[in-house]
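DNA-binding HxlR family transcriptional regulator: structure, please.
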Amino acid sequence: MTADQATTHGKVPVEREERDACLGADGSVAHVTRVLRMISGRWKLPILFRLFAEPSMRSSQFLRDIPDISQKMLTQQLRALENDGIVARRDFGEQPPRVEYELTDSGRSLMPVLMSVREFSRRHPGGR
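Here you go.
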């Protein structure tokens, strides 16, 4: 085994074998880090899993389903997920206001990844 074969970045499936493929500005590490930032925080994963279970939800449903989240925090987290293109906000333009949230195509494509992470956790119970 050569030194290149023994390194972690050599094992990551990418189109080219150069070090930058993993560690460069546009490498694997940068992309995974960006996604982890999008979903990090106490409330984003509960919001995403609720939207995966229910295709469309109103703020009041989130507040009932996610204990201890405040309206302010829910709004902040939904806006962040919307800015990242994971959640879409639909305003019906009605009075009283009616707004619903749903996963975008990108959000739906993220869910199998999160389900795989869940299964990884179930199979590897060690650590915290």
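Notes: The mean pLDDT is 88.
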